[in-house]
Fold each of these.
Amino acid sequence: MKRSMVALVALASLVGTAVWLSDSGSIESTSERKLGAAPSVPDASVRERQGPEAAVTEASALASVDEEMAVQQQKAVFEIRALLSCHETDSCPRDDSDPRASFFLLGEMLVQKVRDFESAFAGTPGFDAQVAGLIDTLLAHENGHVQAEAVNLMSRQPPSTQSARALLSALQGTPDGKLLVKSLPELARYPELESETRALFEHTLRLGSFSASRALAQNLGPYLNEGNVGFYSGLASELPGQAAKTRFLKATLEAYGRSQ
């Protein structure tokens, strides 16, 4: 009986040991599986390689955006130039409601196209160069509203002597007093063109239309300075004494004198 009991105890001990070893193996296997599932961390060399690759990808994306922007910009310029040259291709917009309606319609469309172009692309690469190429043609247009929009565009661009000379040419002989007045602050940005501007103003005051000469005489104040006020004072003494432009010019000169 005692030998049977001892045998049973020994057998139970062996079974317990086997179970414990089995459980240990399961735990170890589970642990190994968990460690195996953990994401690997790239070493320093891998991270260094990822940096330039990411930069190249970003540069490629930016280049794609810039290319698309350039395409859209060119398309907008093409549309403006197409309107500017529509008489050559017999493709101008038509409005037969009035003999001058088509003329004004074209002007309105050009002004809107120019404004849309500036709104969409101002500050983008290539914009200033495109504008410089457009301004001369816009200033040469026969519609005063288109010319005025060109002056607005000039005022928001860096000074350009070429554009300033195109403006002086557009103003030569113009009957449009409003355009002349709008142009005064812009012309004041070009002191190096003082002699050419003075020739234009003298011609306008002596021989210009009633509207242009009167508007210039009334609004010349901001353009006056110590270097040219003597010239305009002498000119005022040579103009017809009773003419409205003479009275306005003298009043402008007197106001300038009081402000000094």
Amino acid sequence: MFKNSKINKKNKIVVCLIILILCSCGAVYLVFPQKNIEFENINKKNIVEIISNLKNVNIHNKSVSIKLDEVNTSEVIKDITKFEKFKLEFKENKLTLYIPTKVIGFIDTVNTSNFEVSEENGAISLKLIDAYLGKIKIPNSKVLKVLSDNSSEDFTVDEKNEKIYIKNKFINFTKAEVVDDKLNISCELNFNNMIGDFLKKRK
């Protein structure tokens, strides 16, 4: 009877260890990225510089219409944020932002955020739809905090309304939308601010 008690105790320990291992493996699987993301080096480029160098710029009266691909848009975001690494994708008329991160300090994974793109008050508005850590859906507030920590004057985060605003003192955005894997923008250049900034630098 004493031996049976010892065996039962050992069996319980073994079962508990197996359950613990299975739970740990399941948790690690869930925090792994939904797909393999390659984070390439991104150059910094001001949006005014990109507009001036693009060939597919349509000018009508005072309005400028441009189409930015993922590379162009990434360069703009790199220029106005503190992110060292990230990847941007356009799909299903939405913008998806991938940010590498670590769980428990050593497990590499990815924060995935999906945004609806529009224009609001002269800025490009990114409305956060949902967010994931690996395969796990997480509260939008978690990602907004990360974005806020890497914000700037031209990349502001409205945590209450779950929005990001991309703006530029030289540009007044009048339209912004994702169509056919491109960011379509209409804007007006603020030449007064450009001249003023140029004169300040000359002093």
Amino acid sequence: MRLSLLAGAALLLTASPALSAASLAGGTSADIPWLRLIGALALCLGLAAAAVFALRHRQGATGGLPALWKPRARDASPPRLVETGALRLSNNVQLALFTIDGEPWIAATSPQGQVSLVRCGEQAS
């Protein structure tokens, strides 16, 4: 009974003139609100440009449009954190040697996320 109802419904849907390819090919085109689409695109582009200006101003690069595309000048100061080496002791422990502001440090890490930081020359506690 259910199978015959489903087959009848499928036959009605496929035989419907509203869904046939011939009626779709001869129909009129849908009215596209071009003004609304162009307005929405202009709004999105304007918001994106305003966000760029706001971010550049927030980061300290003030100026007109040419300042947007110039690379920002980097100060010539050396980096504060420099990794000088890394050594894997086993599958579970890795040592990292680095300096912070010219002071040497050792970090031991494990897969569980445990990190031990020790200043070089100090006793581990």
Amino acid sequence: MSRWGVMSLTFALSILLCACSGAGQAKSYDIPSDVCGISVKPELLSPLLVAGDVLEERKSAEGGEYWKCRLLVDSKLSLVAEGGMLGGFRDPMEETAVAKRREEDVVRVRIGGEEAVLWASGAAVTFPCETSLFGSFVGVRLTTGDTEGEQKERRAHVKAFAEDFVAELKNHHQCAS
């Protein structure tokens, strides 16, 4: 094959790979201003959601001691937010099974001034909430479906969203802390 033929084939394969990888796809849906009934800043949520056409929220548990909802884009999992009332402090490190399965580094941090752990596709936080009807602490875990890209950058996006989500969750439950 001539040099021009090889270059043409390489160029064609490059275009095909870019088209198949989803590079350049946009989010054709509106970014919500709440997740699981908790107000959030869409600009902090947006980096955690994948490109696609249709965003859907599915709640599998709501109210009471435990809640969980999923954001799906074109029927693919994009974000899971779940939490519950706890009778006492629970080490957020106990909520890192997803990170271990994905072989992502887990680091201890503070989110909203509270004990937390953070990994590239999620975070777990435990905070006191004395006004809670069901317990004296709240545990929260956020997990994204996206595992593409630089871990450090993804971790920064997850932390920014988690800071906002935890602050709003504290307000929602009227926690004293």
